[in-house]
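Case 149 in the screening queue. Each case pairs one protein sequence with one candidate compound; here the compound is 4-nitrophenyl phosphate. For every case the pipeline is the same: read the inputs, emit a complex structure as tokens, and attach any notable structural observations.

Predict complex for case 149.
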Amino acid sequence: MVCLGNICRSPLAEGIMTHKVKQLNLNWQIDSAGTGAWHVGELPDRRSIATARKYSIDITGQRARQLKPHDLDRFDLILAMDSSNYQNILRYAISEDQKQKVHLIMNFVNPGRNQNVPDPYWDDNGFEQVFQMLDEACDKVIEHFEVEV
Ligand code: 4NP
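Case 149 output:
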């Protein structure tokens, strides 16, 4: 799960997906990162923490990190929150195989529409919408690869 700062959107995506795969007993490894380094080492944004907590998901164990080239080897699927993240991730890709792993997460909900998960950093009210978008997207990703949810 990749966004810009790894403090707002991708920590929510990591928390939601981790919660779902645990419930479904799937052997998936979930992680998140940011394309930028400004917030490395920080906790998720307090508004992301509060929104996740509302749905009984604890994301306070997460610390922000920056995406690294090796991530495109380590993971089978790299999910970008918006088109800017998507373009930045592709710059790390050194093979067609790596490029094929990178997707906009909302394309699992609306294929081909290239919809962004909006950056809620400057909008206190944006976090709930981001949570709902990611909750639906994570269900679709799981459905696509594994099981009906
Ligand atoms: P995120 O949100 O990419 O969803 O973690 C942002 C957090 C911080 C900044 C930008 C986006 N920033 O510029 O500091």
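Case 149 observations:
- The first helix runs from residue 9 to 23.
- The domain at 2-142 is CATH 3.40.50.2300 (Rossmann fold).
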